[in-house]
Amino acid sequence: MTVGTPIERIWPAPVTGALTDPQLTALYGRADRPHLRVNFVASADGAVTLDGYSAGLSGEPDKRVFGLLRMLCDGLVVAAGTLRHEGYRAVRLSPERRAWRREQGLAEYPTLVVVSGSLDLDPAQAAFADAPVRPVVLTHADAVPPPGLTDVADVVRCGTDRVDLAAGLAELRRRGLDQLLCEGGPHLFGALTAADLVDELCLTVAPLLAGAGPGRITAGDAGVPRHLPLRHVLVAADGVLMLRYARDPAETPPAGAAPAA
Ligand SMILES: NC(=O)c1ccc[n+]([C@@H]2O[C@H](COP(=O)([O-])OP(=O)(O)OC[C@H]3O[C@@H](n4cnc5c(N)ncnc54)[C@H](OP(=O)(O)O)[C@@H]3O)[C@@H](O)[C@H]2O)c1
Fold first, then answer.
1. Residue 19 in this model has a pLDDT that exceeds 60
2. What atom in ligand 1 is closest to the CA of residue 189?
3. I want to staple 231 with a disulfide (CB 3.0 to 4.6 A). Which of 24, 84, 94, 244 is the partner?
4. Closest residue to atom 42 of ligand 1, CA basis
């Protein structure tokens, strides 16, 4: 496949020359157990948005890895806030990436999973209306869906008055969605971190200072710091860093386990 800006691995062992898509696919890979990967892009000074959106932080190398990570997952998890704000469209993959998934015995497309407490969702949004696979909405027992939402998505209730994320992830895994990719946003990432459900963080660092104002990649209530070992450092020729942090598989709690204290 033709690639644009070259991406090289500089750590742990430098790999000379531009990485191909199959090499990048192998570097990120799929875990051999249920796994939650989170993917964000930030500026060098830690901003999660530029002019209110992530697009200004993301260039061609980030988009390339972003697409590969979508190719690798069973379920694509996104918070309702980001779905609404970024105007999520239906998940699409190139014919090559769909062929790769078929070769691996995977469904042709990942399933979109939206996390919402309010169910303030528009069934006409393309993410639902044009979805190639019926999306799942994780919510709680008290939430009332808007007209039409259950026509275009499975509404799954986990928790009575708030979304129980551990139970939600266990339900996704019961449906065969073992490899989950979360694309944010910050409040969902903060809640997943607080519940100790994050196995991996893929972080693209754009070489720019956004200045004061924008938030971080995480938001919400303060939690317990958790060590997350660095696994690789990639650098694109335009100075963009791509960092992959993941915990040791032995530290991964069993799916559906109660969050660590
Ligand atoms: N740089 C990046 O990589 C990146 C990635 C993603 C997003 N962003 C940016 O982040 C901003 C959006 O952030 P945000 O603060 O709105 O956060 P968010 O986490 O995207 O959305 C918050 C909303 O999602 C739902 N939600 C999140 N966590 C939940 C939980 N634990 N339980 C139940 N519902 C939950 C709720 O929706 P309801 O209101 O429906 O209950 C909540 O109001 C946007 O500016 C977006 O561009 C940047």
1. yes
2. 19
3. 244
4. 81
